[in-house]
Every structure is written in structure tokens, then in C-alpha cells.
Design brief:
Layout (H helix, E strand, L loop, with lengths): L4 H22 L4 H31 L10 H11 L11 H5 L9 E2 L4 E2 L9 H6 L7 H26 L11 H34 L2 H4 L12 H17 L5 H22 L8 H16 L12 H12 L1
Antiparallel strand pairs: 1-2
Helix pairs in contact: 1-2, 6-7, 7-9, 7-10, 9-11, 10-12, 11-12
């Protein structure tokens, strides 16, 4: 028979109550009945785990990399877990979830944070093929990062609630959750690294690759910011606009602080071949960088631009 988790719990409680009554009547512990019950329970859990694994694989294979909707019932249960109220076994019954008539939610809102997620956490060619994507965009990465953040946020709650149900010896198994947590944190860090790579490899290097030939800083009619620096600023702001609806403010701060750290350290080397012949030309290089920093006015107050350090470097080099 195919039982849901709540049905199994009810069957187990009823059967165990029967076993306890027999033991009370005989004055002996019936290891045979208990063993048979535990073996049946073990077989069910193994089958249940296999079914859930198969379902997860199917979900990953059909991932569309779109913002996943969350049923009101599941959202309420997830909030209960995060606030220490426990896990609702009803949610393991798909019919109960499917019968929810309330409008689905676009994001998971917890007391401490909100998340927009996709259900796939896989990056790389496999994810691209599964979702029929020509490329994985910054938005895809942002949604994947949020999905990882959800798991990172929940693992401590899951560990705490499991700890209350386990023996002291069994609690040693919970150390594996710490390893899982670290894996998710590292995976999320790699996604952040992807954002930096987008700006460095696809934006900064593209526009500055031939800046010594593309821009004549000795030209008195030169318009600032020059096309290369204007292109970097516009595309970086565009990345910000793509990610801001997906990532929360703290993550945006973390991502773009690293972006501007990278610009501060990598941009000067791109200007090594830029050597204006006139003092006015050298001043235009500095003015170009100042105009470049000012181009990020939309981001001020949201992320730390650290533009002063970049400008200071160019002033020391060209003035």
C-alpha cells in the first residue's frame, strides 16, 4: 500500500500502542513485534526517500529558471519551521498542498529576510541543457544564489528541530549538516565570483582592451566620460538593475562592493599604455575617471563605490 507520511505516522502510533498493551499484559518486552514494526518503518522510509529523490531529479531536469511560486500552505509551513513552531507533516501529503485555493506567492518571506527562488541549484552546461538556455544570465545566477540562501537560512533551524528528536548518540549525525551548510556557502561564493567575472571579463576588459589606441587624451575636443569608461559604467549599472529585483540589499552590497574592489585594483593596469604627451591630456585621464565614478550616481547610498581611491590612484599617476 502507498501511504503518505501522516498516514504512516498514524499507523505507527496505533501499532506501537498495541505492542505496548501486549507488553504490559505479559510483563515482557516483545522484541519480535518491535523488530517487525521497525523493519517495516525502515522499508517505508527508504522507499519514500527514493521517491522523493526521483521527484527531485525530475524537477531539476524540467527547471525553467523562472521565479518559483510558493503555495500559501507551504509558505506558512516554511515560516513555522523558521520561527521554531515545528514541521507540519500535512505538507508531505501532496493532495493537501494541491487543494490550497489561496493565490501562490512570488517569494518566501521570513521574519529576517525574503527570498525569490528557482528550484534548481545546478550551474553550468547541465543547467543550460535542462532549461534549454542558450546561456546562463546574471538573473539566472541571482535566482540560483537566492535558492542557496534559502537552504543556508534553513539548515540551522532543521538541525535544531532534529536535535530535539534524536538521542545523544544520534545527534552526532547532525555534524553532516554543517558540512552541507559549508558546501552551500562555498557554492554561493562561486556565484558571487561569477558576477565579478561578468564585469571584469565581459565588460571592463572588452572596453579597455585597446583604450590607448581608441582614445586620444591629448585631443582638446574629447568628450568625457569617454566611450570605453561610459560603456563600463552603463553595463555595470545595467547589471545592478537586473539583480536588484532578485537579490536583497545586503547581497547587493556584497556583490557590488566586490565589483568596485575589482575595478579599483584592475583598471589601473588597463591604463599602463595610456601616456598622453601633454599636461592637459594627463588631466583629461583623471577627469575621465572622475566622470566614470560619477556615472554610478544611481548606485550611491546602495553600495559603497569607493571611487575616491580609484581617483586618487589616477591622480598620483597622471598629475
Amino acid at each position: 500500500a502507498n501511504y503518505t507520511m501522516p498516514q504512516l505516522r498514524s499507523l505507527y502510533d496505533t501499532t506501537m500502542a498495541f505492542v505496548v498493551q501486549i507488553e504490559q499484559s505479559t510483563g515482557k518486552t516483545d522484541y519480535t513485534l518491535r523488530g517487525a514494526l521497525f523493519n517495516q518503518l525502515k522499508l517505508f522510509l527508504e522507499k519514500y526517500h527514493q521517491a522523493q529523490t526521483t521527484k527531485l531529479v525530475s524537477t531539476l531536469n524540467h527547471e525553467l529558471w523562472k521565479n518559483a511560486e510558493i503555495s500559501a500552505a507551504r509558505h506558512a509551513a516554511l515560516v513555522d519551521v523558521a520561527t521554531g513552531k515545528g514541521v507540519s507533516l500535512v505538507l508531505s501529503h501532496d493532495q493537501s498542498v494541491g487543494a490550497d485555493t489561496a493565490a501562490p506567492l512570488k517569494q518566501l518571506t521570513l521574519p529576517t529576510a525574503s527570498f525569490r527562488v528557482v528550484w534548481s541549484l545546478v550551474l553550468g552546461a547541465g543547467a543550460m541543457q535542462a532549461a534549454n538556455l542558450k546561456s546562463i544570465s546574471a538573473k539566472h545566477l541571482g535566482l540560483a544564489s537566492q535558492s542557496l540562501e534559502v537552504i543556508v537560512a534553513y539548515i540551522p533551524h532543521i538541525k535544531c528541530q532534529l536535535s530535539a528528536l534524536l538521542t545523544q548518540r544520534q545527534k552526532l549525525l547532525l555534524d553532516d549538516l554543517d558540512k552541507v551548510l559549508q558546501d552551500y556557502v562555498e557554492h554561493n561564493g562561486k556565484i558571487f565570483g561569477k558576477f565579478i567575472s561578468i564585469v571584469e571579463d565581459q565588460i571592463m576588459k572588452q572596453f579597455l582592451e585597446h583604450i590607448d589606441r581608441d582614445v586620444d587624451y591629448d585631443d582638446p575636443t574629447l568628450v568625457l566620460p569617454t566611450a570605453p569608461l561610459k560603456g563600463i559604467a552603463q553595463n555595470t549599472v545595467k547589471l545592478y538593475q537586473v539583480l536588484s529585483p532578485v537579490l536583497p540589499p545586503l547581497q547587493m552590497q556584497a556583490v557590488f562592493s566586490r565589483v568596485f574592489d575589482m575595478l579599483e585594483h584592475k583598471m589601473p593596469s588597463c591604463f599602463k599604455a595610456v601616456q598622453p604627451h601633454t599636461a592637459a591630456g594627463k588631466r583629461r585621464v583623471v577627469a575621465d575617471v572622475v566622470a566614470f565614478v560619477d556615472s554610478f550616481h544611481e548606485l550611491r547610498g546602495v553600495v559603497d563605490l569607493r571611487g575616491d581611491q580609484l581617483v586618487a590612484h589616477f591622480k598620483s599617476s597622471y598629475e
